[in-house]
UniProtKB/TrEMBL annotation:
InterPro entries: DegV, DegV_C. It comes from marine sediment metagenome. Pfam families: DegV. This is DegV family protein. The lineage of its organism: unclassified sequences, metagenomes, ecological metagenomes.
Length: 134
């Protein structure tokens, strides 16, 4: 799972981000890309310059994890968003147009109000997993 949000304000208010992250997000206007590690903890993957670059970064991550020309394994992909559906739609279009990403199912869904309350309304991201044989 990879996600990004407009800024650290909601994350910082809930005590889930260091002050430095809030400072970078606010002053330099960087967008954080976060992921969940194998230990189940949220980790900062990197900062990108703007919303467009965050879309590209999430797309690159899916491509990187899908790059096996001999694999026939398809993926279930879920794209989620808060109040702004546009980045999610753009990412969906990029994924569908890439023949190297084998899709079993692609779901576009709005996040719950609880998640949005903790991350802010500007959250959006992608989650994916391989499909095991049916």
């Amino acid at each position: 799972m990879f996600a990004t949000f407009e800024n650290f304000e909601y994350i910082f208010r809930g005590g889930r981000a260091p002050f430095l992250g809030k400072f970078l997000s606010r002053s330099i206007r960087l967008k954080p890309i976060i992921t969940i590690g194998s230990d189940g903890k949220v980790k900062l993957k990197k900062f990108v310059k703007n919303k467009r670059n965050s879309i590209i970064e999430l797309y690159r991550q899916i491509r990187k994890d899908s790059f096996d020309p001999f694999s026939t394994v398809k993926k279930k992909i879920g794209i989620f968003y808060g109040t702004d559906i546009n980045p999610a739609l753009e990412l969906e279009k990029m994924i569908r147009e890439d023949s190297r990403i084998k899709i079993d199912e692609l779901i576009l869904t709005e996040v719950t109000t609880v998640m949005s309350a903790h991350t802010g309304p500007g959250i959006w991201g992608v989650s994916y997993c391989p499909v095991v044989s049916k």
